[in-house]
């Protein structure tokens, strides 16, 4: 469904069947000389049909169109190879997330390591159903963007802003004159962005909180999010997200008061805003996302000296210091 959300800027709401996110907002910026599409949807027939129908409705010439990917998650990047084959000119990614998108074997090995940490015995690839789309088989050629780079689309001058946290290399676009910000999954209304574990060497939750405090300083009238509603009061929403993660950290400390626990045990004891009555009823993808979020918070508590991580017989346990 195409909606003009600002002069020359359109939101193409692409359904994500069987996914709690429900839909992704792909944005299209039009001008006489150059167009820009922001994010794509999964590499599925349903997403591809909706994406192309929206582009056709606006009579977008793909040979005069570039693609900007906010981050490497497949609901945002899955159709990038398809659009490239259909004639899109340049595909923009951050260097970090673009490399993650292309390094499928390295990513698979990391996910298998996470499977072990979470205590899951299900194979990662088979556990995520067809609704997540076809896997990349060829390397995607992309142009890397970094903080301060600019894209000019008609009257809009879009500045690249680094906003890592949801992924290690998520980027957004800020239009200073019109006070617009395309933020991907950095800030969402109604739901909270998933902040997952990306390795023991980094405190990804701290990275995300720094990015929130960075964006709260920007003057923004329209925060164009990738899911659910466009946000008009970004500062209030960011304060809510920061409070949410503070509550999560307190909840985990309370859980660890019961004694040493694995990541999976902590995740199973946490509160999740899902309709399932008990942890065993969660679909595997939701267990995966919940466990990743639990682990990012546990590691933040390790990095801040409140919790210690212990390895016993190749299993990781967490306990209060």
UniProtKB/TrEMBL annotation:
SUPFAM superfamilies: Metallo-hydrolase/oxidoreductase (SSF56281). Coiled coil: none annotated. The keyword Hydrolase applies. Keywords: Hydrolase. It holds the Pfam family Lactamase_B. It is an enzyme of class 3 (hydrolase). This is Hydroxyacylglutathione hydrolase. Residues 23-227 form the Metallo-beta-lactamase domain.
């Amino acid at each position: 469904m195409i909606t003009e959300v600002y002069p020359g800027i359109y939101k193409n709401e692409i359904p994500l069947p069987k996914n709690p996110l429900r839909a992704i907002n792909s944005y299209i910026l039009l001008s006489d000389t150059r167009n820009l599409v922001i994010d794509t949807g999964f590499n599925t027939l349903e997403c591809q049909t909706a994406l192309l129908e929206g582009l056709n409705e606006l009579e977008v010439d793909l040979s005069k169109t570039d693609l900007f990917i906010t981050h490497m998650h497949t609901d945002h990047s899955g159709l990038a190879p398809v659009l490239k084959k259909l004639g899109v000119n340049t595909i923009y990614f951050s260097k970090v997330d673009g490399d993650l998108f292309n390094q499928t074997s390295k990513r698979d090995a990391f996910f298998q390591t996470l499977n072990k940490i979470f205590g899951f015995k299900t194979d990662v690839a088979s556990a995520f159903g067809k609704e997540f789309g076809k896997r990349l088989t060829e390397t995607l050629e992309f142009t890397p963007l970094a903080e301060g780079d600019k894209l000019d689309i008609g009257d809009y001058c879009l500045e690249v802003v680094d906003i890592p946290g949801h992924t290690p290399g998520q980027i957004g676009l800020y239009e200073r004159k019109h006070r617009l910000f395309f933020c991907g999954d950095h800030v969402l209304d109604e739901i909270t962005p998933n902040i997952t574990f990306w390795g023991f060497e980094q405190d990804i939750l701290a990275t995300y909180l720094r990015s929130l405090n960075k964006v709260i300083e920007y003057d923004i009238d329209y925060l164009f999010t990738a899911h659910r509603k466009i946000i008009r009061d970004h500062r209030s929403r960011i304060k809510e997200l920061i409070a949410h993660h503070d509550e999560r950290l307190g909840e985990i400390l309370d859980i660890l008061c019961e004694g040493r626990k694995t990541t999976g045990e902590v995740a199973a004891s946490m509160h999740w805003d899902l309709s399932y009555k008990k942890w065993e009823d969660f679909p595997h993808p939701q267990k995966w996302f919940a466990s990743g979020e639990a682990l990012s918070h546990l590691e933040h508590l390790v990095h801040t000296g409140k919790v210690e991580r212990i390895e016993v017989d190749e299993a990781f346990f967490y306990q209060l210091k």
